[in-house]
Design a protein that fits this description.
Helix content of chain A: over 70%
Low-confidence stretches of chain A: 200-212
Shape of chain A: elongated
Strand content of chain A: under 5%
Order of helices and strands of chain A: HHHHHHHHHH
Oligomer: homodimer
Largest interface: A-B, 52 and 51 residues
Distance between the termini of chain A: 52 Å
Mean pLDDT of chain A: 86
Largest sheet of chain A: none
Structural class of chain A: mainly alpha
Chain lengths: 212, 212
DNA sequence: ACTTGGAGGCAGGCTTGCCTGTTTGTTTAT
DNA sequence: ATAAACAAACAGGCAAGCCTGCCTCCAAGT
């Protein structure tokens, strides 16, 4: 191993620990995940973990924050990665679903359930909910400005996230969420079509509210 | 304590244990729930638990089955409890939501997440998904036959369940799901309206498929 | 340039407490 | 009387946190 500065050592170690935590969270789940699993996966000792994160709650909270940032960035990335001519609402839905049908999506659900016991996690996940909502609205405004004019667009997007979260949740219990997501996407397609048909006439005055 | 027959003793003990399990599941969550908590809450000894349920997995599986039946029955109950003149779709949505915004709803989510590790739980929850889907479709057909004619009604109902599940899930992380559910309900109201407006013309030929 | 002292990074074992399953003993029903 | 229902102590295992000691880096002094 080449020489590394102290700051680099710290940064790399923390990154390894947090990545391992997120992976364990996605694979094993929160309940069955132990700090031993994490240090084993990260190839470090228990002492290293204790040095950087005094308690398990601190570790998980930090992992949640990292997960939030990671997903926020990746969301923009994936959506802007599709070629401009393929940027249909249906494609956007596929991207959104790929965002939930993901190991990190599972980790997020595990964290959400675990947050019931950790109030600190609640605030992190609360931040994430706002952040994701903002990014989503922003993306819609950028790529589908006509959709952003729809009256209940804010509720629609929130519902969309809840819908996909619920789908991913039921996938944990063995449901074939992949095909369900596909059919739901078709369903949402005709829904949005109907919305547009019946709202393009006069109701476009009501724009999306800035704050809840 | 008066004299009870053996069958009564068994039945009551099992009921107490399963109720306590479901309560602990809803309150403490699956991860932090121990068999000690359960016997303490049920006011019985560890031996009694061991006698009726040899392992924790057996106990939880049995509790899940009881929860499924319980919720199935309660669903019909709550929906048929509203006076006939108030049986609007909006009211039905409120009933459906009350079905998720419930301690047993929380317990169900906990079980769903836990099912990722227990394959036996998966089959129980799979049964439940089918059962709930069937009951929902049945109820819609009985109370809102015109809605049952809509083209994507099966996907719509499935999405509705997923949506509410996702809402309840985010409520675990501190979101004020109550108000969100209310606004989503309004949103769904206009949505259904639009669906009806634009689908009452020709597309009523496609009825809901019997099997996926 | 070289050394030296200190501080932070890190390894691995220990320990206390809890959790599950088992076993032995007691009560209750048939 | 005999078997089932129940109680209570017991045993093994595991997880989280702590603790001691070693190693690596960096800065200050010479």
């Amino acid at each position: 191993m080449e020489r590394r500065s102290q700051a680099e050592r710290t940064e790399q170690m923390r990154a390894r620990l947090l990545s391992a935590t997120i992976e364990c969270l996605a694979e094993t789940g929160y309940g069955r995940m132990s700090t031993n699993d994490i240090v084993r996966r990260a190839r470090v000792s228990r002492g290293a973990l204790a040095h950087h994160f005094p308690t398990k709650a601190a570790l998980v909270t930090a992992a949640a924050e990292r997960l939030v940032d990671q997903r926020g960035a990746e969301f923009r990335e994936r959506l802007s990665a599709v070629e401009p001519e393929r940027r249909t609402p249906d494609e956007a839905l596929a991207v959104l679903w790929s965002f939930y049908d993901d190991p990190t999506g599972l980790a997020l659900i595990e964290l959400t359930v675990a947050a019931r016991a950790y109030p600190e996690l609640k605030v992190v996940l609360g931040r994430m909910a706002e952040q994701i909502g903002a990014i989503t609205a922003e993306m819609v405004l950028e790529y589908f400005p006509d959709l952003a004019q729809l009256p209940f667009i804010e509720e629609a997007l929130r519902s969309l996230h809840a819908l996909y979260a619920g789908l991913a949740l039921s996938a944990m219990a063995g449901a074939e969420a992949e095909v369900q997501a596909q059919r739901v996407r078709e369903f949402l397609g005709v829904l949005a079509l109907n919305m547009q048909v019946s709202t393009t006439k006069p109701q476009s005055s009501k724009t999306l509210r800035s704050k809840q």
